[in-house]
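Table S2 (continued). Query chain:
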Amino acid sequence: MKIYETVQRQAEAYADQPFLHIPRQATAAYAAAPVDYTYAEALRAVDRLRRRFADAGYGTGHRVAVALDNRADAIIAFLALNALGVSFVPLNMEQRPDELAHVIGHSDAVLVVSLPGHAPKLAQAVQLLPEDVPISVCDPPEFKPAPAPATRASLEDAAMVYTSGTTGKPKGCLLSEEYFLHAGEWYAELGGYCTLEPGRERLLTPLPLFHMNALVVSFMAMLVTGGCLIQLDRFHPSSWWATVRDSGATALHYLGVMPAILLSRPSDPGDDFSGQVKFGFGSNAEPEHHAVFEARFGFPLIEGWAMTETGCGGCIMANTEPRHVGQRCFGRPPDAVELRLADDAGQNVAAGEPGELLIRAAGPDPRRGFFSGYYKDPAATAEAWQEGWLHTGDVARADRDGSLFFVERKKNIIRRSGENIAISEVEATMMQHESVDACAVAPVRDMIRGEEVFACVVLHVAHPATAATARDIFDFCHSRLTYYKAPGYIAFVDEIPTTATQKIRRADMKKLAAGLVEHEDTFDLREFKRRS
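Corresponding output:
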């Protein structure tokens, strides 16, 4: 069954009930009022756009890249394309043209649908491709005719979401119809603190539609239960609680950065939302913020764990007690999930010891609800699914009651404000600077962003270890990397910890960075990490 067919069914059951709400704070740049759709109105809008795509020749076997941000247009386009069997490839428009070119080209997209303001950057991206990909500006859309029908009778993906890997080049995760529908059903049945009442919930999320959390989890939860999705363009701290109150949100999705920022704001008599908001659904709340946030704002932050690769087939949530608040607990595995905690040799670790989280769905289909694989990369897919278990690269430990606690990431990834940053990509960029003889990058803890990019640099002898040199390296990286990937800290060192074969000792590098982050000779460049 297609996701579109679920929309059809729900439009009959909940015709005049709210389907989608874009608050005024999120529409300020392009509309004078909020944007609202009932279920019946949304289906009519989807069908109008579906006919326009079909008239231009788009259908089964095609992929279309979409740069419509977090607007209602993106969700309507996703559903219209889904109705035709076209795969949806959301674009992150904070990326550089060469990064966008990789996604557009690698995904085999035959069309890019764009907001007017994104068209110039997308034109630069398309120029980097060996074959032209037409760009249709959506205001209103004028779709270029589709190329000849794709040779594939169908696609194994309803969408393709790109996720950063340790090698730097993002990998395309194939997300099937079943992946989406399973996520909605999973959320609807989750229960505990996260119980959803059919036709009554209003779920607010500021997270981007180019990630699975917003595109799949929150959207499908509301669709399957007849609720209303409240989609923000991004997180606005100053107006956050006014938006929550005015929108009537009954549940919120968050990342760890959000509680930290909200707690830093002055207290207000209206801080208590216990009579309105049932729960926050998210991950990575800082331990020292967790209980404080719940006491101040009046609702629980339900911590969980998942990856794009696991979908909700491998999602684990602390939606029932014991939640072990403030201990990075993400709950106990449900009956539908099997897991192991393994050492580097693949052997199960002793109780209470940390090990890599290996996970799969219980029952005859271990990949039920998981991604379908990495596009054009069967070797990476096979590596991820070694011996029938998805190797997550995350290290956890289990308590006596079966509760799981996040420890660290085994992969060479920095997780900053919900974005994965490949360490190798940052190091490769830094090595292109004329002053850098050697470098190594590691994550350091950040009370607001979760983790920050820390770089140790060995300079060529002709370059001084000064603030000006650090700023020059930063500017070089900032101009070549998406802004959040640039180093937040730079420390000049005499040597990088390496093995006898000159490989960076990552564990030692983490310890070195943690020790240097407060050192007076370390240059703090975080204030310059801004969107262009």
